[in-house]
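Input chain follows. Return structure tokens only.
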Amino acid sequence: MSMANKDKCFIITPIGDDTDPIRRHIEGIIDAALRPALEDKYDLVVAHRISEPGSITKQIITEIYSAKLVVANLTNRNPNVMYELALRHSLGKPVIMIAEKGTPLPSDIVMERTIFYQNDARGVIELRENIAAAEKEIDYDKTESPIYNVLHDVLKDRQIIEFSESQSISQEDDGNATVLKYILQKLTNLEDAVQTSRPLMQNAESRRCFDGVVFAFSYVKSTQPYQVEKLLMRLQRVTQIEQDISVVDVHIYEERKKIWVYTMGLSDKSNASDIYRSFAKTLSQFGFEGVKAIHP
């Protein structure tokens, strides 16, 4: 396929200057993994390789808006990358998220599908294959993303409210049926959300969800103030005993006195008992008394 006939794929990625180690990392991922996986179908566009004169910010926004596909590399949790990803999500257009193993994802997107890769020769080959497979699964006719879905619901809510307030609707009116149908659907969505928010996993085998594992704990009481961000950072030190695992989020349910630690990268060779002990020790240090792992 000639370059003129190809759709565009914009790469959202941390850049850094020429002396920054992340620059060499990113250039390698683009040229050795992304380009071979996608160049047959797409013209790949990367911000720091745009040669056209003009505002680079405007060019980036234009590319994010118009590209058929976007690939976002979340490695290092670069603020510009997160900003650009949010812009793409607001449009509801397809995006493939990737990150180096060990990258802790923000809680807003931790449950979104992300391809984690090892930054070595074999890891690049695996990433290339996973990118190609993920692209084939995309439904380009579907408009969906975490931000787009919320904005769509808010707009629809407003339209329904304005409609119901502007008319006096009798029971037989078609408008009343429309409003009632919408309310029933909202209740169904709420019920689904409640079901989804319940603990997803009950044991080490069934906890696997979105390529991750949840470590569950109960506790008796909390004896001191805590900051979730600092607790998350401390829990991430588990890499000192298990190199490949990364802690991506922690949820504390104070009313139920339960704590869920969300992790990625756990393998069959990982020592789950050591990981449980490490997490329990950290939780105790943060003032959670009577911490116990919830076992099958």
